[in-house]
Specification:
single chain, flat, mainly alpha
């Protein structure tokens, strides 16, 4: 429960779905320096074993100029 006077942000479903597509698709710069304290909650990969492939964003919509 949120404290009085503190607004809680409810993430938009579309935004959450968008962000999940990119989770662990890039290496965490903080982890490489030994500074990442997020551990399993980190959105970025902590090494090559965790690194995933991002979505293919080619031809995702019709070009308006075409």
């Amino acid at each position: 429960m949120a404290a009085m006077g503190v607004a809680t942000r409810i993430p938009d479903v579309t935004y959450v779905r968008f962000r999940k597509q990119f989770r662990k698709t890039d290496v965490c710069a903080f982890f490489e320096r030994g500074w990442c304290f997020k551990r399993d909650r980190c959105e970025f990969a902590h090494g090559a074993a965790e690194l995933g492939v991002g979505p293919d964003l080619k031809k995702t919509s019709v070009c308006k100029a075409w």
